[in-house]
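Listing 4. Sequential folding, example run.
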Amino acid sequence: MPRGLALPLLIYLMFVSACTFYGDHPARAFSEATGGEGMERVFWKEVQAANWVQVERSLASNYSGVTPSGTLDRSATMEQYRNWQLKDYALGDMQTELNGTTIVVTYTITLRGTASGPGGAQPLPTTPQHMMTVWQQQKSGWVAIAHSVTQSQ
C-alpha cells in the first residue's frame, strides 16, 4: 500500500471503530433528543421523575389530547400527570414519521404506578395502551401539539 494512503486509512478506521464501540447514547433531556423516539423516551422519563417544569415546557400552549375518558387541554393533561406516581413504564412498537416540521410517533406503553383521585389512589392501567403523539418544531424547540390514547382490546 502506498504510504500516502496508509495514514488517512488508519485515521478513518479509528473513527469508524469508535462509533461502533461506543454505540448510541439515549437522550437524557429534550435538548439531546434527535427524533420522535428520543422525544417520547425523554417525555416519559420526565413524567416518571415528576419533573413538571420540563413536562409542561414540552406541551404546546394549544395542546390537545384524546383519552378513553374524553378530551384534555394542556392544563387538564398536566393535572392528570401530576396525580400520577409512575413507578415504571415500557415503550414498544415505536414508529415515527417525519413530515416537514412535524413528527408523528405511534407506540404502545405499559404503565406501572398509581393515580390519586377523589376515591384515593388507584392503579394505572396495566394493559398496553396505544399512543400517538404529534410533535412540532417551533422556535423554542420541539413541542407536543396533540396526543391520543386508546386502550388495547
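-- end of first protein; second protein begins --
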Amino acid sequence: MKTIVITGSTRGIGFGLAAEFLKRECNVVVNGRSQNAVDLAVKDLAGRCPPDRMWGQPGDMTDYDHVQRLWDNARSHFGSIEIWINNAGMAHPDLKFWELPQEEIDKTVSLNLIGLMYGCRVAITGMLAQGSGFIYNMYGFGSTGMLRTGMSIYGSTKRAVNYFTEALAKELAGQPVKIGSLSPGMVITDLVSAQYKDRPEEFERAKQIFNLLADRVENVTPHLVEQILANDKNGAVIRHMSTARMMSRMITGRLRKRDLFAEA
C-alpha cells in the first residue's frame, strides 16, 4: 500500500487528490498551515476510508523545520513515503506588477518557489535514505511560458518551477528517486475568486474564459491520480488538459454554455 504526502491539501486540488488516492486504497497524509484546517479536512475525508489510512500534519512549507517535521512524522506514522506531491501554493490579486503590495510579492514567491524547493530537498533526502520514492511538483499558469497581464509574479514562480523540476530530473537520473510534474490546467478553486477580490466586474469578465476552458476539481483529480499511480518515468509531465482537448473546448464551448461557478 502506497503512502502519499500532499502539501496544501486541506482544500482545492490538493484535497481532491487526497480523496482520489484514498479511493484507490492508498495511505494519505494531509497538510495545511493550521491545525484547524487540517482537522476539518481529515474529518471530511475520514468518512471515505478506514481511519488508519488517513493522517494530518499542519505546517508552513516556507519554514524548513516544518517541512522536515512533516516528512519525519509521516514516515514515522506510515513507515515509508512512496509519493510526495508539492501542491501548496497561492495566487495573488490579478493586478499589474507595480500595483501589487510588497507582502503579496513576498508571500507568492516564498510559498510557490521556496516552499516547493524545501519540499523537494526534504523529500529527496528522505527518499534516497529509504531507497526509493517519487516527487511531483504542481505546474500552473506560466509554466509553459504563456503570458497574461496581472499574473507577472505568479507566472514567474511557475515558470521557475518548470525549470527547477527539469533540472532536478537530470540531477536524479540514475538515482532510485524520481521526479515529475502535474499540470491540471484551469481548475475552479478558491484561488480563482481570490484573484478578483473587490473587483466584481473584472471577475464577471474572467468567468467567461474560465467557463470556456476550466474544469472542476472532481473532474480533474481522478485523471491525475490514475496517471500518477501508473507512471514510472523520471521527468514525466502529467497533464489533464491536452492541447487537442483545449482546442476542442474553444471550438465547442461557445455552443455548450457552462456555469462552473454556479455548479461549484
